[in-house]
Model the fold of this input.
Amino acid sequence: MSTEQIAQVVDAKGLSCPMPIVKTAQAIKGLASGQLLEVLSTDPGSVKDFTAWAKSTGNPLVEQAEEGGVFRFVLRKK
Amino acid sequence: MTAVSDPPVPAAEPAVAPAPEGEVKPRDILIICYSGELERIWAAMILATTGAAMGATVRIFLTFWGLQAFVRDDVRITGDNTMQKMMSFMQRPGISHRKLSKMNFLGMGPWMMKKLAKQYKSAEPKELLEIAQAMGVEFMPCQMTMEMFGLKREDMIDGLGDPVGAATVIGLMQGGDAPLFI
Done:
């Protein structure tokens, strides 16, 4: 677990493609460089999608976990 | 003596050098929105919003039946002459009035599709269109289609760019845009 503070949480639980990624892209715009964004999703496709999104946008995926069917991603704004 | 040719040696490195980590500049995406069916308009809107979310510049060229989906929902009959008016009467324009290419069943199919999308919390085309516009996706109507169907700027949804022709589309492809014909 990171001890750094999460600046914002996107609750995308229950949402299907493409909404978790779209909501993440919209939310990260409001953050300052270096701040952390946490995304919660129940879409199994989001595991690969968030890796691809992080690679394409250059916002690193710093943490990834799954608990009880909920995927948790922590992304750092570049 | 038999000449034995060496098997081709596979290239060790890909032809295009990978960009340095964290500095991937995504290719611009050009969607040619040609078909007006619900399922195709939907796919175009999903890919456009996702492309924009991934940091790509996304442009959509609206042409033929694809352009009719971007007539305002509240416009019923379009065109100047009888044939153009008949065309819009037979297939109602607007993104909320799309038909499925299969299993349309007088609108039952699209109604069920939208209900399922709501149930599984995906977004329907109209909602995705609004998101795409908010994310800066560029919409380019086809000049020739506008004329052929007798469509006017005031018939179209707000936020469309200037009408362009096929040369603009080809130019963008030649410039390296990833093209998608939907």
